[in-house]
Specification:
The protein has about 375 residues and is α/β, with parallel strands linked by helices. The protein folds into two domains: about 80 residues, Roll (Urease, subunit C, domain 1), CATH 2.30.40.10; about 240 residues, TIM Barrel (Alpha-Beta Barrel), CATH 3.20.20.140. The strands form six sheets. Strands 3-2-1-4-19-20-21 form a seven-stranded mixed beta sheet, with no helix packed on it. The two termini are about 20 Å apart. The chain binds zinc ion. Zinc ion (ZN) binds next to loops.
């Protein structure tokens, strides 16, 4: 079967062509001898990437495979054809066997401590010192990534309860080194200011949320070339979380409100310092799947140029994750839009067609 892609086929920041073809599931820039059986017109982009998306997780913890499948389909139909899962309590390795579901890079289970993360989400270790061993176990289960919870509210402090780090700095350093020794990368959930230096000292590969970053941290993160997943849809919920915790944890509530109030400015500061800002929906806990266009729109609202956000949601992050995009002989994983989302981010909302492994899997 031959599919003709026509209009603007975006390859990367510097390259685009007027047409391409899909032959036996693979992309080619050479006109095939066979007549195409279908033509797709528009702006053709490498399949979108959601770098913080929990397939297999819902508000109360792990979900059954049928529910996980619906999550993955919602992501796919939004144009997301590559997911880094950022931690999942359910074993979703079976997704790899399904040609109709997005490509998935799993991070195993979130690593946390008892009472120091959302219940039923993470793997709660017996002691902080167990982290390096647990990192190796999750690295063996996952697809090249491990996810740590670096800070969370400490409710044992009562009314003084606030975000505090979970791991001593030396344990964190040993854990990241252990992952790197087996070729895995590590990302960390972090809301607090207090956990960032130890994460950076340890050589962390990516930061999730990073809402606590000070100007000094931003400089360090930029110098180290560590990407930050901004998760603005998630941070938008901080006001509601603060209101809920106000009575018992006033310090925590105050902190979340401050982080919420400065969220757009912080993302702008990251961008202006040269930090790669990644697009991740944080779907699967309290947020629904299939919302990459909403997260991208939030980043533009924060002040990032649409063309930067689209690059981060597509070819640039594919390359960083080691998954090919649009290229001769590569798997045809592309999304077709009616208008150029680099000029109008709203165009991401309604893909005209989604092509995964050469098959049109969704169509407007
Ligand atoms: Zn998350």
């Amino acid at each position: 079967m031959v599919l003709h892609l026509r209009g603007t086929v975006v390859i990367d920041d510097e390259h685009e062509v007027g047409e391409a073809w899909v032959v036996d599931g693979r992309l080619t820039f050479q006109r095939p001898t066979l007549e195409p059986s279908a033509v797709l017109d528009g702006w053709v982009l490498p399949g979108l990437v959601d770098v913080h998306c929990h397939i297999g997780l819902a508000a109360d913890g792990p979900v059954d495979p049928g529910t996980a499948e619906l999550q993955a389909l919602a992501d796919r139909d939004s144009g997301v054809l590559l997911v880094r899962d950022a931690g999942s309590p359910a074993d979703t390795g079976w997704v790899h066997d399904r040609a109709d579901l997005p490509r998935l890079l799993r991070a195993g289970r979130h690593l946390a401590l008892p009472k120091r993360y959302l219940r039923h989400y993470g793997r709660e270790l017996g002691a902080p010192q167990d982290l390096p061993t647990a990192v190796l176990e999750e690295a063996a289960r996952g697809d090249g990534w491990v996810k740590l919870v670096a800070d969370w509210i400490d409710r044992d402090l009562g009314a003084d309860g606030d975000l505090t780090p979970l791991w001593p700095a030396d344990v964190l350093a040993a854990a990241v080194a252990a992952a790197h020794a087996v070729g895995a990368r590590v990302t960390a959930h972090t809301f607090a200011t207090e956990s960032l230096d130890a994460l950076l000292d340890a050589g962390i590969d990516c930061l999730e949320h990073a809402t606590g970053a000070t100007p000094e941290h931003i400089d360090r993160i930029a110098a180290a070339g560590v990407p930050v997943t901004a998760t603005l849809l998630q941070i938008a919920q901080f006001e509601a979380i603060a209101a809920q915790g106000e009575a018992r944890y006033p310090r925590f509530a105050r902190r979340l409100r401050e982080l919420h109030a400065r969220r757009y400015q912080l993302v702008r500061d990251f961008y202006e310092a040269g930090v790669p800002v990644l697009v991740g929906t944080d779907a699967g806990g309290t947020l629904g799947h299939g919302r990459i266009a909403d997260e991208a729109a939030e980043l533009v609202r924060a002040g990032l140029p649409a063309r930067e956000v689209v690059a981060a949601a597509s070819w640039r992050t594919r390359e960083w994750l080691g998954v090919p995009g649009v290229g001769e002989g590569q798997s045809a994983d592309v999304v077709v839009f009616d208008a150029d989302p680099r000029l109008d981010i709203g165009a991401l909302q309604h893909p005209r067609a989604v092509v995964l492994r050469g098959h049109v899997v969704a169509r407007a």
